[in-house]
């Protein structure tokens, strides 16, 4: 049997990575542009956190880790991991995972999570249908701490016209419109005050052309916003969306949501994806959203295991 070598990933590996990923991650196929966004366009993906397994010059597996700095300190994530089916059971996945965990631990992290590496992430966990993946991670010390849901909205069944509810809001001095470049500083200040974890995604929306973010304002003050194409660009990804506590209960959420869904429909999408959802009832009531995927959320406490 030919020996297997390990090294760090390089941009030249992208085509082989994509082919390997799409052969095996059947519920999460990627385009070249999406893979580039997840890996090379993520400033926190450092070369030392990426690993490739090769045999006779062929890529047979890879792993990508990333560190995000949260309020509680640095947290490590396994962003992507894939091993060719023909080479499973040979310890390739375990070697890739351990090498990534060790690199994450050296970077100061004390726990590692699977997926969910917001703001740039592919999935909010491990799809429950990846049975082999579930067994793999649980056998290596990962504990399931809950679930996350992605919803889909059928955009073909509604025009998402907002003229009437916007007219009602106008009687209270509230206007809703697409954000402009001049809104960047005020909206980022509001996001920093209320939803700091969304800063990067909102920044992405403000960079899009046209800007993929809508605002609700009263006397020049931002009451809420909604955005799309902030992550997994071009896939029909909706969010984030938020209303400041003092403005809740006025119907802003529905209008902001519908404005984005209308834009996504005009982009040519038949469905919109609402990821990592908290208020499922809201999206079901106002957009007919349905649960599309369920993900298990996993964490491993590195201080419980001796890494070498």
From TrEMBL:
Q: Which GO terms describe its molecular function?
A: acyltransferase activity, transferring groups other than amino-acyl groups
Which residue ranges does the record assign to the N-acetyltransferase domain? 4-171, 174-307
Gene3D superfamilies documented for this protein: 3.40.630.30
The record's listing under InterPro entries reads: Acyl_CoA_acyltransferase (IPR016181), Bact_Acetyltransf (IPR050832), GNAT_dom (IPR000182)
Q: Which UniProt keywords apply?
A: Acyltransferase, Transferase
Q: Which domain of life is it from?
A: Bacteria
Which PANTHER family does this chain map to? ACETYLTRANSFERASE, AMINOALKYLPHOSPHONATE N-ACETYLTRANSFERASE-RELATED-RELATED
Q: What is this protein called?
A: N-acetyltransferase domain-containing protein
């Amino acid at each position: 049997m030919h020996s297997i070598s390990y090294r760090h990933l390089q941009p030249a590996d992208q085509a082989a990575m994509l082919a390997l990923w799409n052969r095996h991650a059947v519920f999460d196929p990627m385009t070249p542009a999406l893979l580039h966004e997840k890996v090379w366009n993520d400033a926190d993906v450092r070369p030392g956190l990426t690993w490739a397994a090769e045999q006779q010059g062929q890529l047979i597996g890879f792993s990508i880790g990333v560190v995000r700095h949260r309020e509680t300190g640095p947290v490590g994530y396994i962003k992507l991991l894939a091993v060719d089916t023909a080479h499973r059971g040979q310890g390739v996945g375990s070697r890739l995972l351990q090498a990534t965990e060790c690199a994450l631990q050296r970077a100061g992290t004390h726990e590692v999570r699977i997926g969910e590496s917001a703001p740039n992430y592919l999935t909010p966990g491990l799809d429950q249908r990846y049975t082999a993946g579930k067994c793999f991670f649980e056998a290596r010390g990962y504990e399931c701490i809950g679930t996350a849901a992605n919803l889909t909205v059928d955009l073909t069944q509604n025009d998402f016209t907002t003229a009437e509810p916007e007219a009602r809001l106008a009687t209270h001095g509230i206007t809703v419109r697409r954000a402009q470049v001049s809104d960047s500083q005020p909206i980022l200040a509001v996001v920093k005050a209320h939803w700091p974890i969304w800063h990067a995604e909102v920044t992405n929306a403000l960079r899009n052309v046209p800007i993929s973010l809508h605002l609700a304002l009263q006397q020049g003050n931002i009451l809420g916003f909604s955005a799309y194409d902030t992550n997994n660009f071009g896939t029909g990804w909706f969010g984030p969306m938020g209303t400041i506590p003092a403005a809740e209960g006025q119907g802003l959420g529905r209008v902001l949501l519908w404005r984005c869904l209308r834009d996504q429909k005009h982009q040519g999408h038949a469905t919109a994806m609402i990821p990592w959802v908290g208020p499922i009832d809201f999206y079901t009531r106002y957009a007919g959203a349905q649960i599309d995927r369920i993900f298990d959320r996993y964490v491993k406490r590195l201080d419980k295991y001796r890494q070498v």
